[in-house]
Design goal:
about 5% helix
């Protein structure tokens, strides 16, 4: 293994009904990379005629969710009243704070069997001072996310700052998150000014100092090392990281908090029906027992 690589995390499958997702974070070996505490690779999967994604209303606290698609569409609805179709290349940034509820579904007019779903969903832990902030939602269309080409590699900045790009989201913590497209034979150095850094291979392969990472692998790099990513074939990757989170975070189901008593309250509130409702939705995901 390369001297710059701390860990190679392989994804584990999770069935969400309409298709399978592959989870790279959290893992026993690594709970987070910077503020990223959850990382799911959705698809690629072509939905059968009449089928669709139907993630019923469920709650979050203490985090922000990030949905980014390569293909397909997800209809987002939340307890603040927002209804937003998430389409390829755009960004949904939902800050849960003290509590929000949302659903993620395939719209009725997209269930003809032609929809291919492919994307990444991540959770960003909030700093302790913002864990109980007011919930909020922001949608940023694909054209509003800045792009550049560096050393032949096309880059889109989704969150934070890197490679001279700055995303439109007001990030609560030093962070970077980019969609990268590597042509065959290209190479790119990772930003050196973040304590924690990772690269997830969506398709193709990346090589670092003789170690090759395949699709479905999240490479975690040692702090302070120089990291150059090389692609022998066309490769799609997600580059991510940020400053080290202060304190410890506990994840229980859809809740993230630095206070375990707060997690207990969130569990009790969801079971008792005390969270806000998603307008127009009557279903919900019960609290896991």
């Amino acid at each position: 293994m390369s001297g710059a690589i701390e860990l190679l995390l392989t994804t584990s499958p999770h069935d969400i009904g309409a298709f399978e997702v592959r989870r790279a974070l959290p893992k026993r070996e690594r709970r987070h990379i910077g503020p990223f505490v959850f990382f799911d690779h959705l698809g690629p999967a072509t939905l059968a005629p009449g089928a669709g994604m139907d993630v019923r209303p469920h709650p979050h606290i203490g985090l922000a969710t990030v949905t980014y698609l390569f293909d397909g569409e997800i209809m987002h609805r939340d307890s603040l009243g927002y209804v937003q179709a998430i389409q390829p290349g755009a960004l949904n940034w939902m800050v849960a704070g003290r509590g929000i509820v949302h659903s993620e579904r395939t719209a009725a007019d997209k269930r003809d069997g032609s929809l291919t779903m492919h994307g990444i969903q991540t959770w960003v832990a909030l700093p302790p001072a913002l864990e109980e902030c007011e919930p909020s939602f922001a949608h940023h269309p694909a054209a509003t996310l800045p792009t550049t080409t560096q050393d032949g590699v096309w880059l889109k900045c989704i969150l934070g700052e890197a490679y001279g790009l700055k995303a439109p989201v007001a990030d609560p913590w030093p962070i970077f998150y980019l969609h990268a497209e590597f042509p065959a034979g290209s190479a790119l150095a990772l930003p050196a000014n973040y304590a924690e850094r990772g690269a997830y291979v969506v398709s193709g392969a990346l090589e670092v100092d003789g170690t090759t990472t395949e699709p479905g692998t999240l490479a975690v790099f040692k702090e302070g090392t120089h990291v150059t990513l090389r692609a022998a074939t066309p490769t799609r990757a997600m580059l991510l990281g940020g400053a080290t989170l202060p304190g410890e975070r506990t994840i229980w189901w859809n809740f993230v908090s630095s206070d375990k008593d707060r997690l207990a309250k969130a569990k009790a509130d969801w079971k008792a029906g005390n969270f806000p409702k998603v307008p127009g939705e009557t279903e919900f995901i019960p609290l896991p027992e």
